[in-house]
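Quiz preparation item.
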């Protein structure tokens, strides 16, 4: 199991710096998720964004859902999400809670069978997946959806990039040299979660 310690210990000031530099996800990603969710009968009442950090993806889901909850184990990240001017008038509840318990430890708790969509935007690589899936099964409504995604790392197109083959070779070599220092969570995210289910 990957274990995350950096973000867990973030202060609100560190959370604000993180939020300022974190790239946003494409609106098309959220449209694709919502289209899939509704095409399988999913409703648009309640979404829980797990590992929400400072709430960027949570905010992007706000126009689709009536009830929004952002959960993160880091008090500093949640405090940043709560204090951000972007969230002052929005109906999002930001709470400190881990992916493995999915709000069973908050007031009011996230109740069994109450969630339409569970999301995790580049966060699932830090979850204890067995415990997460157990909690997800508890809180999801019948027909609910779980959407987990990660953003890719750097990629070099060897044809379109000037001197692309050499640049790609150099980048691949540098990544190979860093490999022994990467933790499991970083590797899972870099590889776009291809091995995430092997952690069960």
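Solution:
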């Amino acid at each position: 199991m990957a274990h995350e310690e950096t973000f867990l210990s973030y202060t609100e000031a560190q959370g604000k710096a993180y939020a300022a530099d974190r790239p946003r996800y494409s609106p098309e990603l959220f449209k694709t998720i919502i289209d899939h969710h509704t095409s399988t009968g999913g409703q648009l009442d309640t979404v829980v964004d797990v590992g929400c950090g400072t709430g960027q993806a949570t905010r992007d889901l706000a126009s689709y859902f009536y009830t929004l909850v952002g959960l993160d184990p880091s008090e500093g990240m949640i405090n940043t999400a709560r204090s951000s001017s972007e969230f002052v008038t929005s109906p999002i509840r930001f709470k400190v809670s881990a992916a493995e318990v999915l709000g069973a430890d908050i007031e009011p708790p996230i109740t069994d069978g109450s969630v339409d969509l569970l999301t995790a935007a580049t966060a699932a690589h830090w979850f204890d997946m067995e415990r997460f899936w157990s909690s997800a099964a508890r809180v999801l409504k019948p027909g609910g959806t779980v959407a987990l995604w990660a953003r890719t790392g750097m990629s070099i197109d060897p044809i379109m990039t000037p001197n692309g083959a050499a640049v790609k070779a150099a980048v691949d070599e540098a990544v190979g040299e860093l490999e022994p220092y990467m933790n499991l969570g970083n590797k899972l995210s870099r590889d776009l979660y291809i091995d995430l289910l092997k952690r069960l």
